[in-house]
């Protein structure tokens, strides 16, 4: 019997309705045509392979739902998380744009991989702030497509994550504030040193490039729809940091399935619930403080305004999860308990599943989220052991 003590909070979004059509104005942020174009590009990259969609039938039975799918992003391009799709793609788009502007020639993926424009790109530097995974993606993209890279990490990013970014040849700079402060520092330095910011979060005056990051994530959603082979989930539980991922999930599935789309539930750490607080206020709200959480990828206090446009009208529920459920959920997946596949899931990957399990143990939450024995739930396991030491210590810990 799966049982652990969790604390959840819930907010229903009064602005979202299942019957509403995808608003036409949101196509400027994310359209199916954009998603198709992005898939055509990324699926041609070396090493591209669709990640697996596991069925976790034993856990589904334990928690009293009909189906449970887990999209496992641990193997994505060997980088360990779905973020490999976003940052690197935006680097590709930026470099292509620079070369085409200067040469007036059409540039292909092969041109970049073969470093045909190495001379022209020698002075180009891409940069961003990260809590780990996005920076790894941008650094990998810079190495793959041939430009320089400077990545900013905040005071709480672990040394293992720092090392993983540096391994792709990036210069890594550690700042002293929280994640949001590192975003501002990267932006200010980019202005001073003429670097191109490739950020996964948008902010006033910087709204174009993050669209391409979000489009990169849709590759994963196209794969999911194909792997589901005609089945439609009733619910999706998705982790929220700045909201880029949730906006891609919501925007893509909304356009693909229309009013049959699943109820979409964002899960955030209690300490970094900027999306839930913004939904409560009806406008983007900043969560101050050190944003400390085990779920490092979700330690964000400021919403991406671009993502907010989709989230504010498309996400049905906002849930927060306490820290105590993270380790048990990682251990549950790693052990393959009850006969399901064994899965390596990092701290930020398990938030969705941990919230689903916790909700299934509370009569009040099952009712609020409309969960019952007919529910078919999709979870996205957004990372593997991206910090192997921390992963191991959480696996070994008994609480
Ligand atoms: C593993 C993981 N899951 C989920 C997220 C949340 O994505 P977003 O910040 O786009 O909401 C992140 C962000 O870094 C992440 O690293």
With strands numbered from the N-terminus, the spatial order across the biggest sheet is 1-10-9-8-11-3-2
Give a quick account of the main beta sheet: strands, pairing sense, barrel closure: 7 strands, mixed
- Tell me the total number of β-strands: 11
Overall morphology: globular
Strand percentage, roughly?
Answer: 5-15%
Radius of gyration: 20 Å
Which ions, cofactors or small ligands are bound in this entry?
pyridoxal-5'-phosphate
Name the helix and strand elements from N-terminus to C-terminus, one letter apiece.
EHEHEHHHEHEHEHEHEHEHHEHHHEH
Structure report:
By secondary structure, the protein is an alpha/beta fold. It has 16 helices and eleven strands. The strands form two sheets. It has a seven-stranded mixed β-sheet, with helices on both faces. The chain has a four-stranded parallel β-sheet with strand order 6-5-4-7, sandwiched between helices. Helix 10 links the parallel strand 8 and strand 9. Helix 6 packs parallel to helix 7. The radius of gyration is 20 Å and the shape is globular. It starts with 7 loop residues before the first strand and ends with a helix. Pyridoxal-5'-phosphate (PLP) binds next to helix 6 and helix 10. Pyridoxal-5'-phosphate binds next to helix 6 and helix 10.
């Amino acid at each position: 019997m799966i049982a652990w003590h969790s604390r959840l909070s819930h907010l229903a979004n009064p602005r979202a309705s299942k019957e509403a059509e995808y608003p036409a104005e949101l196509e400027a942020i994310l359209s199916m045509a954009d998603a198709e174009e992005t898939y055509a590009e990324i699926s041609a990259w070396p090493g591209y392979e669709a990640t697996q969609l596991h069925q976790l039938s034993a856990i589904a039975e334990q928690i009293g739902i009909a189906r449970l799918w887990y999209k496992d992003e641990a193997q994505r391009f060997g980088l360990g998380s779905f973020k490999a799709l976003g940052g690197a793609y935006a680097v590709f788009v930026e470099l292509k744009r620079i070369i085409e502007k200067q040469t007036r020639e059409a540039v292909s993926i092969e041109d970049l991989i073969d470093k045909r424009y190495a001379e022209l790109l020698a002075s180009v530097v891409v940069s961003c702030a990260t809590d780990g995974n996005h920076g790894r993606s941008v650094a990998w993209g810079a190495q793959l497509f041939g430009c320089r890279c400077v990545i900013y990490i905040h005071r709480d990013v672990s040394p293992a994550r720092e090392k993983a970014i540096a391994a792709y040849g990036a210069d890594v700079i550690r700042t002293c504030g929280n994640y949001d402060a590192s975003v501002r520092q990267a932006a200010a330095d980019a202005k001073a040193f003429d670097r191109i910011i490739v950020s996964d979060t948008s902010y006033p005056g910087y709204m174009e490039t993050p669209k391409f990051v979000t489009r990169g994530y849709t590759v994963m959603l196209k794969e999911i729809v194909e792997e589901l082979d005609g089945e439609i989930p009733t619910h999706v539980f998705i982790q929220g940091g700045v909201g880029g991922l949730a906006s891609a999930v919501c925007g893509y599935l909304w356009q693909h399935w229309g009013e049959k789309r699943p109820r979409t539930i964002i899960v955030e750490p209690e300490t970094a619930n900027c999306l839930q607080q913004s939904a409560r206020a009806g406008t983007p709200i900043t969560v101050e403080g050190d944003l400390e959480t085990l779920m490092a990828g979700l330690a964000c206090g400021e919403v991406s305004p671009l993502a907010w446009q989709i989230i504010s009208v498309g996400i049905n529920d906002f849930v927060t999860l306490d820290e105590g459920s993270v380790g048990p959920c990682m251990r549950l997946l790693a052990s393959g308990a009850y006969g399901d596949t064994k899965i390596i899931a990092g701290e930020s990957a398990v938030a969705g599943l941990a919230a689903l399990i916790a909700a299934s143990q509370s009569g009040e939450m099952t009712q609020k989220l409309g969960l019952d024995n007919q529910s078919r739930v999709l979870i996205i396991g957004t990372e593997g052991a991206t910090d192997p030491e921390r992963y191991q210590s959480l696996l070994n810990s008994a609480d």
